[in-house]
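Our consortium's second objective concerns turning raw sequence data into structural hypotheses that experimental partners can test. To show how far this objective has progressed, the report includes one record in full. It was chosen at random from the queue rather than selected for favorable results. The single chain below, 50 residues long, was entered without modification.
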Amino acid sequence: MGTSVLIYAGWYKVRKGKVGGFTDYLNKDDRAYIDSYLHQNLDRYFEYYL
């Protein structure tokens, strides 16, 4: 696969670098599931990230 094909398909860049850009790829239910999982399983040491 050539570079021009990758650029055309949007696969050339790994991420947009946009704050909150994950909302473009995850729906509301997916985000709620991830939030719930993190609140239940994330070590207390990382609690300030939530």
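The partners drew two points from this record. The helical segments are 3-9, 28-41. Residues 15-49 form one domain. Both points have been shared with the crystallography group to help prioritize constructs.
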